[in-house]
Amino acid sequence: MIYRLKELKGDTIAVPQLVFSKLGIAEEYNVRVALYVLATGVTDPDKICADLKLRSRISAESALSFWAGAGLLERYEENAAPGEEPSAPAPMTWAEIAAASRTDPMISSLIDCAQTSFARPLTHKEMEKLVNLYIQEGFAPETVMLCVAYVAAGERRTLAAVVHELKVWRAEGVETGEQADAHLQLLALRKTREQYVSGLLGVPESELTLGGRKAIARWYEVYGYDDAMVQEAAVQAGSKRDLWYWNSILKTWNAKGLRTVHDVRGPVAAAGASRNLRVDRAEPSGNDFLRNAARRRPLKKKPE
Known about the structure:
Layout: H1 17-21, H2 28-40, H3 45-52, H4 57-70, H5 94-100, H6 105-118, H7 124-135, H8 141-152, H9 159-171, H10 177-201, H11 210-221, H12 227-237, H13 243-256, H14 261-265
Helix pairs in contact: 2-4, 3-4, 6-7, 6-8, 8-9, 8-10, 10-12, 11-13, 12-13
């Protein structure tokens, strides 16, 4: 059987692209609420719950919070003065979370994941903070779980570290579970590169500063260089084992369009790509520029 879209008779509503972008992470009732609000403009949780026959009022509130966090809705105080900035909603309490978990199984999954990753039971406060990342901040459950596992594998095994890391991820455009998985692979690759550079420097990886780590990431991810180019920069620097000196060399090479070690050591580099470029010859050229230097005519400036 083949289907096609029927001709529209004008009874349509505009659906923002934002809704489609969240279809992969939104629960079924979240999508129903979004379409209902777009069609009617109604945001009253009680009416939404009744019209859509949701299990409880808190399901409607959860969906509204989800779309507010995603950017489809905006929060405001009913009695706020015109132009007054909306205040942030109060975080869900433990009692509200317990009630919501009966209709949204993802809440229980988040809590179980965190307790397993941290190898200890969470306090009620920690559960509130965790669930509000999903309900109020609009983070995808898969993204939160992956971030929890990532933080728990490190030294900062706290919910505060999870909150901070998720904000960093969001700033880098990480929203969905697929994006979070790809970001974790990138973080693992960055760690391998940092270990390589710290080995060339002869310092422990822990001594790399945040700025230094960002510089290393830029060499590989922005300039597109590999380990061989980084090692060549270390060779060109000679005895100067300084990350920022290497950074200046690599930055200059990138500006000059030198992409490989062959470029650096070849004729292209003779244009002054770096103060420390090395050009190797297989054999001496045979030209001695000091030969007969004493018999050369001295250069004199012509009178004006």
